[in-house]
Structure formats: structure tokens, C-alpha cells
Amino acid sequence: MDKTFSWNGIKKEAKRVRWPKRADVASNTGEVVVFTAFFALFFVLCDFMTAGLLGLIGIGG
Asked: What φ, ψ does residue 36 adopt, rounded to 5°?
């Protein structure tokens, strides 16, 4: 039997993992939220501008 994925090996490897600090997780989460909001606003503005330009030339509803 291959011992590559033994329970002891998995536990040993899990103890060697460097888990992130709570402050790092909070900081990264904040960055993701800010960038997501920025790009959401950007794409909404692009959509409104495109719809407005298409309305000016008589295309669309």
C-alpha cells in the first residue's frame, strides 16, 4: 500500500502549515470588498453611458 496519503502524514503536514493572522485576513477581505465595489460601480457607469449613447443615436429602448 502506498503511504503517500497516510493519516499521520496528513496530520504532520497540517501542523507545518502557516495559517494567516486574523489581521491579515481582515485586511485582505477589506481589499476584496473595496475592489469589488469599485469595479461594480465602474461597470454600472459604463452600462449607463453605453445605454445613453445608444439612445442618442436611436438604438435601443
From this structure: -65, -45
